[in-house]
Amino acid sequence: MGWRDITQVHRLTGDLKHNPAARVHPAAVTPEDAVAVLNAAHGLADPDGAAFGARLATLMTSVGHGLGLKDAAVRDLELAARFGRLAHIPLRDGGPLEVDGPETAAVSAAMMRWIGLPEGAASPLDEHAESPLRPILTTARESLEADPQIGANEVIHKIQRDRPGPFTSADDSDFDPERLTVDRVADVLGQLFARKNADTALHMRRVADLSELIARRLGVAPEERAVLYMAARLHDVGKLGAPDTILNKTDALTPGETARMRHHVENGAAILAVVPGMVRASRIVLQHHEKLDGSGYPHGLTGSEIDPLTLILVVADVFDALTDIRPYKPAMSAAATLELMARDMAEELDPATLAALQDIKL
């Protein structure tokens, strides 16, 4: 059984899923922080969808207040409008999800659970839920698609004419800001990336688990392991902005394509940086292609200029990339990969981290 078998990863790590010390620290974030980080990811993955969502969200705020809805209902409408198209991120093959299909409904439901609505809550995001707010959102969305300059009063008149109320919503108690944690932000970003490129999403998960294994070998403190795990789990999230034609290319990248791909470290760091609890993780993501000898990117850092946790992520990332099947290369065995890393990358990789990797029975 090879390293790439995810069941072996979980066996080796002692089932990280149920080990809080190895997971992301559940630091609380504000709802505003959560919205900001998701906006950043959405804008990178689907700029047009994110822009439309922002316009619709602004419209829904005015419409909701104009209809006399409770603050809770206006909040639900604004969030649903802003993030409704997240579920329509193109799949790996470039084909869009069926807008009203079960996959879209599942992603939408996951989004609403993430922002704090309880299990089974009727959400305007879920096309298959009987939410009393969904007719409002549907009319507003259709109106904005037909006329990008439409105003709130005109939308309100359409709603009152075509979909007579009264409209109600969940009580304020349904929204629980305490459920907004750094771990939830990491969860939803991982789910979002899986919609675009499942192979890279699995790579990030394996690298996170391997980073945790190495960190334990090195005696890294639990709170630092948690930061490392989060950074490793999302280290390639900046590739949300890369086209599938580059991600899945079987030939060598052109200089222009290479330059574009290298921006994924800055894009990923920018997404994470908006959440205070992810500041160090953001820095690690930014540095994860740096090398000890200064030959890496984006800043050519050397030695102590690189965060010590980054050194662990770099080794785990290189190992998994070489043992993974990629569109442009076959997979190498674990033994051959360790030999190559020790022989050809000794100046680039941290020796203590590489030794810890070699001690793990892969």
Can you give me a brief rundown of this structure?
The chain has helices spanning 6-12, 31-45, 47-66, 71-83, 102-114, 134-146, 152-162, 182-196, 198-217, 222-233, 244-247, 255-262, 264-273, 279-287, 308-323, 334-344, 351-359.
What's the total helix number?
17
Number of domains: 2
Proportion in helices: 55-70%
Overall geometric form: elongated
Structural class: mainly alpha
The CATH class of the largest domain is: Mainly Alpha
Oligomer type: single chain
Low-confidence stretches: 13-24, 91-104, 116-121, 170-175
In terms of DSSP E residues, the strand content is: under 5%
What is the mean pLDDT? 79
End-to-end separation = 9 Å
Number of strands: 0
The major beta sheet can be summarized as:
none
The H-and-E topology, N to C, reads as: HHHHHHHHHHHHHHHHH
